[in-house]
Write a structure and sequence with these properties.
The chain has 265 residues and is α/β, with parallel strands linked by helices. 24% of the residues lie in helices and 26% in strands. Strand 13 and strand 14 form a beta hairpin.
Length: 265
């Protein structure tokens, strides 16, 4: 199985970067599944049902979110309606949506997609280790699932790294998101799990993590939050990762970074 994961989509620049490149991704990489993080797709904070439908209608197979999943209120009922969107697994039980989804692909292969929210410098949530352990009791790589992909949406680098080691050999891939800066540590761990601390964002990189530079620089000078963050409006760049997984073992065999500018007609 070959999967592609595109990092946090930030506002219009990120949406255009991904949507304009989807045909290229399909043609050049021939992936079995494409996963996109739509955490910041709606003006930089959360996503809307219409944005989700736009990506799904364009051929994206699954969407993941993050700590801004509740930011756009019209998305909340959509989380139960749509079967191809994932919110963090380690939120308290009973909330709308699912923290993991199982997809059966047209070729008959099955992939489990889950997301964990970090706890360091983030909002209070349940233990990510306990949440993923409970989920993985029902799955065994190479037996009843061909691949398991875990997005770790976290602030602290060390927390992402430790979760990557904790899940090594138990899942196919652990890829970090949230900090919007692509890291160069993509690798395959000793147990066969593909890993990257942060996949980066899809958005305007002439910015401060996707937002216009003016307000962040003002905050730097005046030492308090006064103005509002607005998304940068320049051309976007897609950052993602492509991972090959052995169908029989569920272990990763290849990992490669993707960087593509917005495609213009």
């Amino acid at each position: 199985m070959r999967l592609i994961y595109c990092g946090d989509v930030v506002a219009r620049a990120g949406r255009e970067a991904v949507l304009s490149n989807l045909p290229n991704l399909r043609e050049d990489y021939k992936p079995d599944v494409i996963i996109v993080n739509i955490e910041n797709a709606a003006h930089g904070f959360g996503a809307s049902p219409s944005i989700c439908r736009q990506f799904l209608d364009a051929g994206v197979d699954a969407l993941v979110t993050g700590n801004h999943v509740w930011q756009q209120r019209d998305l909340i009922p959509f989380l139960d309606e749509c079967k191809r969107i994932v919110r963090p697994l380690n939120y308290p039980e009973g909330l709308p949506g699912k923290g993991a989804i199982e997809l059966e692909l047209p070729n008959g292969k099955k992939i489990l997609i889950a997301q964990l929210l970090g706890r360091l410098f983030m909002e209070a949530v349940d233990c990510p280790a306990q949440a993923i352990d409970k989920l993985l009791k029902n799955y065994m790589l190479g037996k009843n699932i061909n691949a398991i992909f875990v997005d770790v949406h976290a602030e602290a680098t060390a927390e992402k790294i430790e979760i990557g080691h904790y899940l090594d050999g138990r899942v196919s891939a652990v890829i970090g998101s949230h900090t919007h800066i692509p890291t160069s540590d993509f690798c395959i761990r000793d147990g066969g799990t593909a890993y990257q601390t942060d996949v980066g964002m899809c958005g305007d990189y002439n910015s401060v993590i996707g937002f216009d530079k003016t307000e962040p620089l003002n905050r730097l000078q005046r030492k308090y939050t006064g103005g509002r963050l607005t998304p940068a409006k320049g051309p976007g760049t897609l950052f993602g990762i492509v991972i090959d997984v052995d169908d029989n073992s569920g272990k990763a065999t290849h990992i490669e970074q993707i960087k593509l500018p917005t495609k213009t007609s």
